[in-house]
Design a protein that fits this description.
The chain is an alpha/beta fold. Helices cover 47% and strands 11% of the residues. Zinc ion binds next to helix 7.
Amino acid sequence: MENFSFVNPVKIIFGKGQIVSISDEIPEDARVLIVYGGGSIKKNGVYEQVSSALQGFTVYEFGGIPSNPEYSILMKAVALVKQHKINYLLAVGGGSVVDGAKFIAAAAKFVGEPWDILEKKAPVDSAIPIGVVLTLPATGSEMNGGSVVSHAAKHQKRFFVSPYVMPQFSVLDPTTTYSLPPRQIGNGIVDAFTHVMEQYATYPVNAPLQDRMAESILITLIEEGPKSLKNPTDYEVRANLMWCATMALNGMIEVGVPQDWTTHMIGHELTALHGLDHAQTLAIVLPAVLQIKAKQKHEKLLQYAERVWGIKNGSDENRIATAIAKTREFFESVGVPTHLSAYKLSFKDVESIPDRLIEQGMAQLGERQDTNKPVVIDILKACI
Ligand code: NZQ
Ligand code: ZN
């Protein structure tokens, strides 16, 4: 196992009826800005629960954060924060709202051009405290320090990571997910699954605990994912799905092991260029990465085939190919197509991606930094 240090200070408040407890978490004298997305929270009762929990608090609102949160919109919230001397942000929504709140929190305290935080990785050294009421199990943003922001005018989608933007608390009430359309549930399953794979499908370092934790998240997603689509108001199923998504990217399974975020890095470019949902990009790219890097990932993919999919017979190559095919089938079964062609895209539409990655300093990706431009081109060709 590799050396590591680990801290995760996010308080998770999990379960039915827990939104009311936000009033215990936010300081009474706080000036709170509630940030939310396109309005789903006003239709499913979440907004009412938040408003009634915050009675007596000084509250402002900022709605309209879109999926793949947009820099120019978030900057309007930054102006509001400064105008009203906001000192607490409450993000109510999915990953885009949580990520948006993280950027607002950092940008409001940043000296200089806040886009530098994303594009130039300018260091963040303070942020407004954030609380979260999560309504979409997918990104893990509710329990990590990552944030991904898009810049439409520049056709960029970039991330930053800072301990200062880790939420102080996150309320995870699985009943808030009942109103999600099937597309977003499918997206959430694929996103969480891919997060685990990018921390697991590398090479062995004798870390059996991290391996088994990763495998148990994958197996639980395979078992509960389809049920969550079939029975959208089954509380137990939604609770399991929600906790899987959080555990997939809260730092627990990544400690002491190599990681390969190639799928996400290519995926972000696909969204920046063509506006695909985050998880749609992952469903396309992950099977292609596993296929093209099968040799380098040989041992872990064999383990994945056996322990996650129960594939024990056949040659090594066959078992790995079957496991990749099962991964693809699983994504398709939860409603997320896995080929570029299904989104009416061809190789021509994505051929700029290798150079776009190089421009960002990502000439070499992968757990061994051996995914260079020709390999990325092979991966993109395998996405068609
Ligand atoms: O905007 P509203 O009206 O709220 O509607 C949203 C949106 O249309 C809707 N929705 C959310 N909760 C709902 C609901 N509709 C009905 N009932 C509910 N309970 O769902 C749609 C999608 O929401 P969004 O927040 O965009 O989805 P998701 O949670 O998948 O977040 C995706 C974003 O997170 C980033 C992605 O790149 C993308 O920008 N990621 C963030 C990560 C992180 N911070 O750690 C890691 C991930 O890899 C990912 O990159
Ligand atoms: Zn993701």
